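Subject: Sanity check before I submit

Could someone independently write out the structure tokens for this chain? I want to compare against mine line by line before I put it in a report. The sequence has 105 residues.
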Amino acid sequence: MKTSIQPAQIDAMLATLSQALAACEARDFDLVTRLSEQQESELATLLPQLQVEVASLPDATRERVILLIAQREHLQREIANWIGQMRDEMQTVSQNNRLLKTYTS
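---
Independent answer below. Compare away.
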């Protein structure tokens, strides 16, 4: 049975995720945001197709979808780590600011 989900569609999404991961590593907030939005939009289109065609997906396509999901989870972890680092840095700045006010007054 032929599916409407094409390997090129999955490969394009994987390429977007790869770019988003690289942007995350480079701490390029604007690019991460833009690529994440693009990826979420593409995924929103793909999910209904997957729900209908999951039983008829060829093994190779199924493996690419599993890789796509794993890469997406990896991106989400990286973004969460980045947010945690930013929170820690902001707490340090806040503490330093309080110390500065205490000892310069």
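---
OP: Matches mine. For the report I'm noting this point. The first helix runs from residue 7 to 25.
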